[in-house]
Amino acid sequence: MKRLFDILMVVLTAPIWIPLLLLIGVCVRLGMGSPVFFAQERPGRNGRPFCLIKFRTMRDGQESDAERLTRVGRFLRAASLDELPELLNVLKGEMSLVGPRPLLMRYLPRYTPEQMRRHEVRPGITGWAQVNGRNAITWEQKFAYDVWYVDNRSFWLDMKILWLTAWRVITRQGINAEDSATMSEFMGYSDEEKLARR
Predict the structure, then answer these.
(1) How far is CA 76 from CA 24, 89, 116, 147, 149, in A?
(2) DSSP 46
(3) Contact 43, 108 (CB under 8 A)
């Protein structure tokens, strides 16, 4: 049912998001040049890798993320419009509208066994952690929300998350961690810490 809902929602809203996709693509091309899209391998369900597609929001270079983030990119992130191309990942069955956000492949060995459970479902464009703080909460809080979603997922919870996501985007709540343009890297735990967190 969840997969059918994802497909129906993406297809039925296509008259809205396809023109928006094209418009944003032109803006990114004019503001930053090519490439328009940012593609990166991310872990999907059960940790299987897939190619996630987003709009590019940063210039190339050796500077920090905050320095490379462009004005157009900052707006796209604030409005979550950089995630729009991920609807194609949803259509392909690699992602869902709702689920834990797909992070970086290099994070996989850094999770505790409990945190690794976030990969028991398809990753999502938005999720329980995103409507409960997004980048303004700690990694531990984020993963706890993700695992809670895995254990409590339902159609009505997904509807609630989609509604709350729209509200968070409108009010621009929890976009960044304090004093940071992006979320800091998750460094994981030592073997002793992982055992203590089981």
Answers:
(1) 9, 19, 29, 28, 26
(2) G
(3) yes
